C-alpha cells in the first residue's frame, strides 16, 4: 500500500509540473500605437494588436479545440491559398503606385512589384500567399507614390486561433512615423463581394483646405503621430472611421470580411462608398 501511495504521489507531482500554464496572445481590438514592430518595420499586422500575454491553465489540446469552436461560431470562412488584390483606377487621370512587402514577408506570386503607373480606367492585380503583409501607396501620376500617400494596408497571415489565414486590410491616411508627408493624396475604397468594407470615396481636396503645405501631392496629416487623438483633424474628418484619419481610428480596419480571397480596391471619387462612411 505504501508503495502504491508513493507512486500516486509521484504521478501527481509530475502532472502538476507538466500542466504548467499555456500562454498565447488572445485577440483584441486594434491598438497599433504602442507596437514597436509597427513603427520600426511598418508591420501592418498591428491592425489586430495583441494584448500582453495572459496565462491559461488549459492544456494545448483543449486550447486548440476551443479555438476551432471560436472560429466556427464567428462564421469565419477558410480562405483560398492566394489572396488577390485588384486595383481599379477610377481617378480622372493616371495614378502612380508602389507595392511594398513587409520585411520577412513572402513576395507576391504575380502582379507588379515595382513602382509604376496605372492609366485612367485601367485595372491591375497582385496575388499574395499566406503570411504576406504589405502596403500599396497611391498618388496622382504627377508625383511618385510613397508611404506618405493614401495607402492600402493589408496582410494575409496565418493565425493560430482560426488555424488559417485571415484577410485584414484598411485604407489609411496616417502611419505612426515622423515622416513629414504622411497624409491624403487620393480617395480609395476596398470591396469584397460587392460590399465596400474600408475606405472613403471623398476627395478631401475638394471639401476643404489642407492645413499645412502640400508635399509631393499629399496633404500631411497633423495627427499622424498623435496617439492620444480621438477625433480626426477637420480636413480629414469627412473620412473619419472609414479610413485611418488618426492612429487609433480603428473602425476603419476590416477583418474576416474578405475570406473568399478577392479584394477590389477602387481609386477616385467616382468609386462606390464603403459602408463605414456612414459611421463617421
UniProtKB/TrEMBL annotation:
Q: What's in the keyword line of the UniProt record?
A: Signal
UniProt KW Signal keyword: yes
Signal peptide as annotated in the record: 1-19
Write the protein's name.
Thaumatin family protein
Keyword Signal tagged:
yes
Q: Which InterPro entries match?
A: Osmotin/thaumatin-like_sf
Amino acid at each position: 500500500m505504501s508503495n502504491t501511495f508513493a507512486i500516486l504521489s509521484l504521478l501527481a507531482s509530475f502532472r502538476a509540473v507538466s500542466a504548467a500554464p499555456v500562454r498565447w496572445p488572445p485577440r483584441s481590438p486594434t491598438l497599433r500605437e504602442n507596437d514597436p514592430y509597427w513603427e520600426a518595420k511598418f508591420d501592418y499586422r498591428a491592425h489586430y494588436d495583441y494584448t500582453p500575454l495572459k496565462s491559461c491553465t488549459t492544456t494545448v489540446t483543449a486550447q486548440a479545440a476551443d479555438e476551432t469552436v471560436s472560429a466556427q461560431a464567428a462564421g469565419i470562412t477558410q480562405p483560398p491559398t492566394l489572396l488577390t488584390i485588384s486595383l481599379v483606377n477610377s481617378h480622372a487621370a493616371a495614378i502612380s503606385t508602389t507595392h511594398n512587402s513587409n520585411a520577412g514577408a513572402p513576395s507576391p506570386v504575380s502582379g507588379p512589384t515595382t513602382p509604376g503607373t496605372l492609366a485612367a480606367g485601367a485595372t491591375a492585380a497582385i496575388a499574395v500567399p499566406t503570411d504576406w503583409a504589405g502596403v500599396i501607396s497611391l498618388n496622382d501620376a504627377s508625383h511618385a507614390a510613397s508611404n506618405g500617400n493614401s495607402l492600402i494596408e493589408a496582410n494575409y497571415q496565418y493565425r493560430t486561433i482560426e488555424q488559417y489565414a485571415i484577410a485584414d486590410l484598411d485604407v489609411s491616411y496616417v502611419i505612426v512615423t515622423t515622416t513629414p508627408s504622411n497624409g491624403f493624396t487620393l480617395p480609395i475604397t476596398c470591396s469584397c463581394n460587392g460590399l465596400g468594407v474600408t475606405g472613403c470615396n471623398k476627395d478631401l481636396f475638394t471639401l476643404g483646405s489642407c492645413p499645412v503645405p502640400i508635399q509631393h501631392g499629399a496633404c500631411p496629416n497633423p495627427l499622424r503621430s498623435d496617439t492620444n487623438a480621438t477625433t480626426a483633424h477637420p480636413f480629414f474628418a469627412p473620412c473619419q472611421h472609414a479610413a485611418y484619419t488618426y492612429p487609433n481610428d480603428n473602425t476603419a480596419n476590416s477583418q474576416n470580411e474578405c475570406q473568399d480571397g478577392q479584394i477590389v480596391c477602387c481609386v477616385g471619387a467616382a468609386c462606390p462608398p464603403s459602408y463605414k462612411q456612414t459611421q463617421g
